[in-house]
Design a protein that fits this description.
This protein has 176 residues and is mainly alpha-helical. It has 5 helices and 3 strands; from the N terminus they run H-H-E-E-H-H-E-H. Strands 1-2-3 form a 3-stranded antiparallel β-sheet. 27% of the residues are buried.
Length: 176
Amino acid sequence: MKSAVEFLKKILLVIELIFVIAFVHREKLLFVGVVALDQFTKALVMRSMVPGQSIPLIQDIFHLTYVLNPGAAFGILSNQRAFLLATGAVLILATAYFYPLLKKSDPCLQFGATAILGGAVANLIDRVQTGSVVDFFDFRIWPVFNVADIAIVAGMALMIYAILFRLDAGKVGIDQ
């Protein structure tokens, strides 16, 4: 009985340690999670579909449609690979450079910047590998998009929310 209690205490200690590590490194986990989920879902689409194929999940409302997007959002700057690679790299480096300034600011700014960075890196991986970004979520009334795009939009929404509603007036909330 005593050994079972000791074993349970050790298990609880390990669980507590996992939660502490996850809390301390939550931005890293978010970044890795966005990139991993995006790349995993794109790999599934590329392995099980052919470009242009569309599978209706909810007829005329939501489809999985395999699209190769050689441009930026909404297909703008189509086939401008070098420009898009350079722009993506500069934005990622700028975010990485300025990120330490956000470390002591509002968590919404931190998580927003991390989500944007994760999405940008995930889409940049596609551009480097194939010259195009794999998109597949298709709501039929909006351009087809992917997990990285969701992270970028959610990150922007978090940052806008933080700036408009959570930060003190006249103060950005970023260490200067």
